[in-house]
Amino acid sequence: MRLLFLAVLRPHTGNAVTAQRVRSWTEAHGGGGLIPGVLCTGWHAPCWDHLEAAGHVCILRDAFDFESPSDIADLITAEHLDAALALHLYRGGRLLQGHHIPFGIIFGGTDLNEDANHGLKNEVMGKVLEEARFAVAFTQSMKEKAQAQWPHATGKIYIQSQGIAATPNPAFSWKEFLQRSEINQSADNLWVFLLICGLRQVKDPLFLVDAFSEWHEEEPGVYLVIVGPEVDPEFTREVKARVKRASGVRLVSEMSQGDLHAAMKNCFALVNSSLSEGMSAAILEAMDLEVPVLARNIPGNAAVVEHEVTGLLFSDPQEFIHLAKRLLHEPELERALAARGKEYVRRHHAWQVERDTYQSLVRKLAGSAED
Questions:
Q1: Quick one: which of 42, 207, 235, 336 has the fewest CB in 10 Å?
Q2: Residue 34 pLDDT > 60, yes or no?
Q3: Do 40 and 119 form a contact (C-beta atoms < 8 A)?
Q4: pLDDT tens digits for range 129-156
Q5: CA angle 187, 170, 39 (to 5 degrees)
Q6: What sign does the CA torsion over 15, 17, 18, 24 have?
Q7: DSSP symbols for 346-358
Q8: Beta strands at 57-62 and 249-252: parallel, antiparallel or unpaired
Q9: What are the angstrom distances between the C-alpha of 260 and each of 120, 191, 247, 255, 361?
Q10: Can you say whether residue 343 is alpha, beta or left, with left for phi > 0 and alpha for psi between -120 and 50 degrees?
């Protein structure tokens, strides 16, 4: 089949970053190739590696390039499209209504966590689900949230976790990264906590800054390094100003995915302080790299991090500091979390299982709705 794949492809979004990871995996492992001339900056393997491996052709387009469903009609005709997929129920899904081609939906996270709370968007998303052949949620909690909002879609929602394959750049220099972060490498003990996020409010990168700065005054060897592209200019200015005044906290601009994975592998722990997550690829990649994870206790994070089993969950900055100190002074806890996190990803986030799921679901787009 010839499939249209709609996703938000703006640089530095979680969708684009995850796709970059999978593109790197595809190149490194000889998986399904990319369409010549099209940069794969969409979501992840369902469009490219998984579906093209099954013989389908994916036409990737940025949902933000279209304002309404009518804008898609000419594309469907010109590209002779048979079916479609959309990542994000509102941003992508609403554009596929009324075209009489079968389509499936992949929940993005903010569609369920934020857009569902807005009356008009909620109504539109409910109608999209009426037309969709299937919808995919990353977690059981996402599925339950969708079912509660739109009970009529209960029978067509499937759960499939993200497949993970971290690919650190072997040429990466940790020493140069520390220099870039203006971190004193001569310290007797050095513990770098890495927080990876685009600089926007929903990621809440300032949540831990004050508490961490106070901790750094007590223990000069601890550093919080925020690695994030400047997504929201106004919020970025606020972040830069706060970080400039905070001792022990550094801000580093965006990095390539391979370098980011390498930095993650070298850091002491990965931190997530988001207000909302669908499923954090950074958390899963850290687990895959056997790096301990400290994550804010929100539904999206708690769905993949079991407290004191595969990682540590915190609700406020004080609890974060308490748990981070435990991690520093209890090496057996650090080793146990790293090992169990790695095993969790191996068991629940294998890309092979993800591939089988999407290839099976896309077969639902062939033929009539009753097939």
A1: 336
A2: no
A3: no
A4: 999 999 999 888 889 999 999 999 999 9
A5: 120
A6: positive
A7: HHH--HHHHHHHH
A8: unpaired
A9: 38, 17, 23, 6, 32
A10: alpha
